[in-house]
Amino acid sequence: MSKFTGGCLCGGVLYTYQGELGGAAGAVTVCHCAACRKAQGYAAAVVPACAEGFVVTAGADLIREYESSPGKKRAFCSLCGSPLYSRRDDRPEVLRIRLGSLDHPPESLTVDAHTFTEGAPAWARPDDAPRYAGLEPART
Ligand SMILES: [Zn+2]
After folding, report:
1. What is the CATH classification number for the domain harbouring 76?
2. 78-90 burial by CB neighbour count: b if 16+ within 10 A, else e?
């Protein structure tokens, strides 16, 4: 069992998580559905976690939740808008942490699946485009 820290962009919300990430908790996914594209600015990289290991250590009062479909709530920082996690009323034991909110996601984490790619625009589908450590060479 490992311990992780995370939070939002402005630093108002901080959390710790102690437990499994992915694996037994569920698949690590990149979701390309229409709701994630609107809510996250693009696809959502999500890692399932056990709710009981998740503790908000600062800024709990800044967290707002938007119910994007019945019983599904997307939590975000009300100051900077950073997505933090989603949760479902019918599965209270699971939080789906937005990977970008973790300070140091484990290097061992791999994406198990891209979901809802069918309805995604062509530019949002997984592709073989070249990857660069920084900006693409044409942009200086
Ligand atoms: Zn914030």
Report:
1. 2.170.150.70
2. eeeebbbbbbeee
Q: What is the pLDDT of residues 76-130, one digit of tens each?
A: 999 999 999 999 999 999 999 999 999 999 888 888 888 888 877 887 777 777 8
Query: Could you tell me where the beta strands, DSSP code E, fall in the chain?
Result: 2-7, 14-19, 29-31, 44-50, 54-58, 63-69, 72-77, 83-88, 94-98, 113-115
State how many domains the chain has. Answer: 1
> Cα of 110 to ligand 1 centre, how many Å?
26
Q: For residue 66, what are the domain limits? A: 2-121
Q: Determine, yes or no, domain membership for 70.
A: yes
Kindly state whether residue 127 falls inside one of the protein's structural domains: no
Determine, yes or no, domain membership for 80.
yes
Cα(102) to ligand 1 centroid in Å equals: 13
pLDDT digits (tens, 9 = 90+) for 3-48: 999 999 999 999 999 998 887 778 899 888 889 989 988 889 999 9
